[in-house]
């Protein structure tokens, strides 16, 4: 029986893909750290040049979040019909052009539009990169690989603060954006020039088309050959020319309607998945606390302990514990055996113990005791990053993974860190005690741990190997095999299928 070689990408290997995605993620968060730095957004940076008040300055971060939250589900939904690897290339191209434009911005509104487009560009990457990593990571190291990817968030922020300060003070804030754009450009280009990779659960469109016989065309050919009626063919071609515009418009409208209908069906599947909902609800509570910590933490520490270098101390603890804790969480879950039940066990236990340590830290009157307890608490709390995203990817069928990550991202920001900072500010204004305010905030970690604890007892099934509704034929099933292979593999097809290649 004839055989055909599965398309492979010679240069790409799983480890190289992970490294590339980690570098891209690092650049994404380096940008977010840079715009928060004094060198880029201080009195001599954006805020000073455009004479922004604090409200306008705060809108810049919200503008980024608007683009991210709106575009994430759109990119995830488009992955059903457009190659996800190409969508990553589109997103990175938007990001590259947007950061370059930010360097040329001339007032508040222009920089706000630029930041919103940066969020749009990042949306495709954060929705689609984790499923690619999940596909190609060794089975025993899936959470570790995810943890390495998410470790780039705190480390990227840290580099961004330093990078923004150095570039801004020596060359000006505009150069910070231009350099970022140049660094991302090769990755954006590679998204279009490299052979596209395919995600598990998504059938390449070219293979679907190859399996559909052109019966209409062959039927016309036979009829004309047997009857000798060239007029029939001419009439049909003339009719096609006249109606081509109407057909194309109709097809576009139908395609958009089908895309929206599929999105609604997929959203319904997510909302009816108890495991997914429990995971996201716990993550919202967790992110509510972490978001407020990141915004108010240095000010709270300064006021409670009279610590003049609170920015440096809080930032240092967060960076170190973020990197070490995130990696440790992934390694521990893989050591325990990465299952959904074990993930919920780790999420609930580490979040509860982390909450106890953080609560005890802010009760402590001694600054050294605070530093020790808070460091342990942050280490435990950050260890959730790998497991929580592992659950997002494995509690749904493969074709829903991009949307699962996208909607989780939307939920944890929309109901978590976006409202938490202003709400904590309102609380502090009303009680005027930073210690009490932060203690009340920290208690929210306990219900988050409780929600994840419930997940241990909910019936869960790892659906990574599920065959989706789009994968019914043998050729379609073969496409679920990740194309990142160290060596070329072969598979057998029927003679009819082989001829299509």
Can you tell me the overall shape?
globular
% residues in beta strands:
under 5%
Provide the number of structural domains: 2
Can you tell me the CATH class of the largest domain? Mainly Alpha
Major sheet: arrangement of strands: 1-2
Which structural category do the helix and sheet elements fall into?
mainly alpha
Quaternary structure classification: single chain
Helix-strand pattern, N to C?
A: EHHHHHHHHHHHHHHHHHHHHHEH
CATH topology of the largest domain, which one?
Answer: Growth Hormone, Chain: A
Poorly predicted runs of 5 or more residues: 1-7, 207-233, 468-483, 485-501
CATH A-level architecture of the largest domain: Up-down Bundle
CA distance, first residue to last residue: 15 Å
Radius of gyration: 26 Å
What is the number of strand segments? 2
Membrane topology: Multi-pass membrane protein
Protein name: Sphingolipid transporter spinster-like protein, putative
InterPro entries: MFS (IPR011701), MFS_dom (IPR020846), MFS_spinster-like (IPR044770), MFS_trans_sf (IPR036259)
Domain Major facilitator superfamily (MFS) profile: 17-462
């Amino acid at each position: 029986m004839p055989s055909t070689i599965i398309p492979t990408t010679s240069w790409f290997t799983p480890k190289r893909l992970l490294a590339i995605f980690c570098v891209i993620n690092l650049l994404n968060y380096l940008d977010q750290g840079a715009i928060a730095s004094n060198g880029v957004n201080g009195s001599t940076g954006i805020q000073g040049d455009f004479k922004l008040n604090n409200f306008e300055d705060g809108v810049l971060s919200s503008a980024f979040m608007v683009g991210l939250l709106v575009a994430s589900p759109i990119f995830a939904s488009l992955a059903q019909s457009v190659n996800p690897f190409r969508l990553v290339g589109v997103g990175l191209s938007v990001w590259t052009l947007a950061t370059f434009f930010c360097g040329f911005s001339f007032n508040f509104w222009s920089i706000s539009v630029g930041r919103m487009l940066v969020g749009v560009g990042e949306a495709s990457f954060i929705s689609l990169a984790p499923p690619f990593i999940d596909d190609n990571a060794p089975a025993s190291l899936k959470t570790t690989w995810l943890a390495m990817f998410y470790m780039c968030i705190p480390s990227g922020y840290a580099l961004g603060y330093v990078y923004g300060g150095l570039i801004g003070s020596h060359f000006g804030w505009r150069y910070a954006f231009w350099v970022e754009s140049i660094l991302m450009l090769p990755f954006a280009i590679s998204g279009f020039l490299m052979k596209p990779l395919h995600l598990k659960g998504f059938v390449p469109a070219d293979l679907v088309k190859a399996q559909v016989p052109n019966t209409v065309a062959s039927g016309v050919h036979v009829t004309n050959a047997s009857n000798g009626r060239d007029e029939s063919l001419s009439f049909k071609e003339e009719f096609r020319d006249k109606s081509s515009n109407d057909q194309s418009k109709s097809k576009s409208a139908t395609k958009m309607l089908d895309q929206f209908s599929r999105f609604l069906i997929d959203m319904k599947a997510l909302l009816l998945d108890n495991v997914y909902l429990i995971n996201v609800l716990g993550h919202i509570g967790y992110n509510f606390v972490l978001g407020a910590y990141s915004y108010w933490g240095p000010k709270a520490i300064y006021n409670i302990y009279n610590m003049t270098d609170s920015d440096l101390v809080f930032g240092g603890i967060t960076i170190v514990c973020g990197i070490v804790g995130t990696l440790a969480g992934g390694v521990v879950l893989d050591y325990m055996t990465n299952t959904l039940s074990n993930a919920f066990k780790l999420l609930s236990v580490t979040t509860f113990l982390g909450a106890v340590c953080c609560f005890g830290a802010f009760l402590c009157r001694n600054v050294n005791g605070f530093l020790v307890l808070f460091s342990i608490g942050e280490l435990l709390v950050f260890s959730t990053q790998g497991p929580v995203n592992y659950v997002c990817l494995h509690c749904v069928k493969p074709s829903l993974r991009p949307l699962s990550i996208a909607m989780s991202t939307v939920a944890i920001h929309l109901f978590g860190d976006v409202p938490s900072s202003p709400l904590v500010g309102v609380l502090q204004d009303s009680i005027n005690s930073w210690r009490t305010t932060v203690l009340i905030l920290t208690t929210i970690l306990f219900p988050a741990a409780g929600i994840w604890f419930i997940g241990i007892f909910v019936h869960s099934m790892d659906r990574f190997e599920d065959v989706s509704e789009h994968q019914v034929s043998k050729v379609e099933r073969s496409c679920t095999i990740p194309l990142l292979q160290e060596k070329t593999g072969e598979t057998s097809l029927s003679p009819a299928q082989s001829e299509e290649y």
